[in-house]
Amino acid sequence: MSKRKRLGTLAATAASVPITLFGLVLVTFLIGRVMPIDPVLAIVGDRAPMDVVEQTRLELGLDRPLPVQFVIYVGKLLQGDLGRSVMTSHTVGADIRHFFPATLELATVAILIAALIGIPLGVLAAVKQGTRTDHIIRVLCLAGHSLPIFVLALLSLLVFYATLGWAPGPGRQDVVFDDMVPAVTNLLTVDALLAGDWEVFRDAVAHLLQPAGVLAYFSMAYIARMTRAFMLDSLSGEYVITARAKGLSAARVIWKHAFGNISVRLITVLALTYAGLLEGAVVTETVFSWPGLGLYLTVSLLNADMNAVLGATLVVGLTYLALNLFADAAYRLMDPRVK
């Protein structure tokens, strides 16, 4: 690729970021205006006098035309002002800084488990194509990808918590350990390690494994299926046939030549799966009473707390955008053909 063409590609990518951000902000703003929920009544209550309702509407600027409201909304966003939550009485930014680390911790553990299990299973299924091993792996993946995640979560609670008693109950930690370690990062396992409190750490890990395992199984199914499809295409390539003809070992052919060729594509799969976990943990967090962004978003929606709903939605959209940009940058760095 010539230098001019490479600069043109980078310029196009750079230009797409503000356009995407503008579209995300616009959609978020319109969602808040078309929802059949009156944010004024959510603040003052449905029994407030009409003069109080109208005064609050004027103070919020909701009496102005939509374009003016949008300009005000963008201006506040540029100042980092997401509004104030009616439910918690805190700023939405402070709430997100408090709740998002719990979701980040849950999704990160889930994607690590899913990748460490799903990728080898996908490779094994491709190498053993058509055998009993391949069929078993495909059935496991089909079940994990087809069952609704709330069903998996409820089954997990029923089996491992209610029946076998192997896992602790819902929540992020036992109440006896509340506020026992200082919240440095708001990642409970990390804060427990920083404080050197191994009892809190073990309790946090025990509570984390069950919801993370549910999300990991759901994601592992997709990762394994995509890995299998990529590997089947790679194993039929001429370079793999040539490597085998040279007498290279099966492990070297599979992992260096075939898998090495698909690793770049897997980065995109993993990045988008991770973004999906950060956004799609809503149901899992609700079932397991996990105090993350998903539960915060659900409770805010039920309480008609639109500032909180729009702030959480915007964070999810920004997360998707950031991970897409990361995947694109990694693709360009690792694939010599793109370079």
From TrEMBL:
Keywords: Cell membrane, Membrane, Transmembrane, Transmembrane helix, Transport. One of its GO terms (molecular function) is dipeptide transmembrane transporter activity. This is ABC transporter permease. It holds the Pfam family BPD_transp_1. It is a multi-pass membrane protein. InterPro entries: BPD_transp_1_N, MetI-like, MetI-like_sf. Belongs to the binding-protein-dependent transport system permease family. The lineage of its organism: Bacteria, Pseudomonadati, Pseudomonadota, Alphaproteobacteria, Acetobacterales. GO terms for cellular component: plasma membrane. SUPFAM superfamilies: MetI-like.
